[in-house]
């Protein structure tokens, strides 16, 4: 077995799975901020129930998402020692900041939010959630800063075959960063909106006892998804304006592709064809765009909130439920375009993927691939099962935020699923 192919498959598998957790985390924490703010301002019990219910969703996904992130980062030292050695002085700076933000600051604030219910002042407790949201976005910010340097290396110099950071500000103004960050954030909002709308639709289809709560979360999910999908399409198409300049072999015209490939062949050896990305990379791009435009129909549902026609007709609820996985699929397609489209480079124009992989046997790499894949898939399945259990319980018994004097609900009081 080819160690390079196995290493790439392992990274693609683990990163794809982890990325799905990230989307849900960013999307849900944004909606949680709105729900708890509404509860703080209005003091309506429905917002408390929704904050506790979707907060439980968020915590399950966050806990397992952190685990998948740790597993994913092990690969930099295990499978990609050439990359770590070459770009460690540049790549390490934003990753170190992200680690401090995500694994220390964000986790600390989140822990205080979890255990601060009914112990802290309401304003302080809300401020903690705002801190969690800001650090979550900061984490995504620094990850995109690091990834954008791989896409378009700037602010560095090479000394003795190793890249050294010379201009930290150049990382933040990198042409490959700004629109990509907006694209990821809006994708997270789209995913979170459709997830909330889809689960709320399912609850209303099964005639949930807490009609008021899921009617409200359905509205919030649809509006968020509508805004998110417009932004994600806009940020996506905005990237076409500069990608041809910074990555001509990916999105340049045929003349620019040929010239760039010939230049790479002259500098690094081989034939120009070796420096062109796989021809099939256009397929996931096309599917991603198709899904994006398909999801834009969610705007049509907003007028149906008048007199609750969206719920009475039932068909919109089924459509929203069916559409729930589509943002996840589109996100994976987008990741494939961004990462595979720059092949055969791990650092575009500087370090080839074959020079970045750890020199080891195919048997060792196969063992690593199987082990990592089984572990990540197990975490993903566990996440799905736990979230399904939380969704099934509804708002009847969210353990998060339970008051000390609040009795546990009797089994007979818990809602059973009702067929539509």
TrEMBL record:
Pfam families: Cyt_bd_oxida_I. GO terms for biological process: aerobic electron transport chain. Signal peptide: none annotated. Residues 398-420 are annotated as: Disordered. InterPro entries: Cyt-d_ubiquinol_oxidase_su_1. The keyword Transferase does not apply. Its main location: membrane. GO terms for molecular function: electron transfer activity; heme binding; metal ion binding; oxidoreductase activity, acting on diphenols and related substances as donors, oxygen as acceptor. This is Cytochrome ubiquinol oxidase subunit I.
